Amino acid sequence: MTNPTVSLTFDNGPTPGVTEGVLDVLDAHGVPATFFAIGNKLATPVGQALGGRIVAAGHRLGGHTWSHEVQFGDAEPARVDEELDRTGEVVEAAGGEPMLFRPYGAGGVIDGRLMSRFGADRLRSKGWTCVLWNVLPGDWRDQAGWVEAARAGIDRESWAVVVLHDIADAALPRLDELIASLAGRVRWSQEFPDECTPIRDGVPTASFDMLLAAT
Questions:
Q1: Which residues contact 198 (CB under 8 A, 6 or more apart)?
Q2: pTM (whole model) above 0.85
Q3: What residues contact 184, with CB distance under 8 A and at least 6 apart?
Q4: Given this model, what pLDDT does residue 210 score?
């Protein structure tokens, strides 16, 4: 049986006192990851420094909305533009990829609240890449069980896009345990399969309809 591919991603940072520890664990294991930062956290001087450290360590840095308060499926076009533009600017300033984007899932549900038709058209017309997920182990809400949930999800997928969080009381305390348990069992990647990338460089993929589910 072929070892599964795992794309490890971190949302909702950067968080001083946490993101540094996540980077240290990744470095100790030689694991590459992708960080989807909240724009207003990345915009601070400390946030910019952490974003620069993420990029310097060889990880990818994209955006995860400016405010992490509104889902695009329910947002007015002007708000969508603001969330994308402001986030892209601070991601670029930190040395990241300003058009690499993960929408706000409000707990991880992929449905019509995730993206509006306007938002999808904006991403397509400007050449953005939109990344979703297929393994959401719940590190922010279940310290006792998220590592086991992550392993089960990875075993279920041929290419697992795992969402963890570089915030307090989430992945960091058990991140080393998870990565150590996967050593030799998976292939780490910073790319994403089409099933979790409904828009790639502005071009819709086979999963594009999932992004607009129920709209």
A1: 120, 130, 132, 204, 205, 207, 208, 209, 210, 211
A2: yes
A3: none
A4: 84
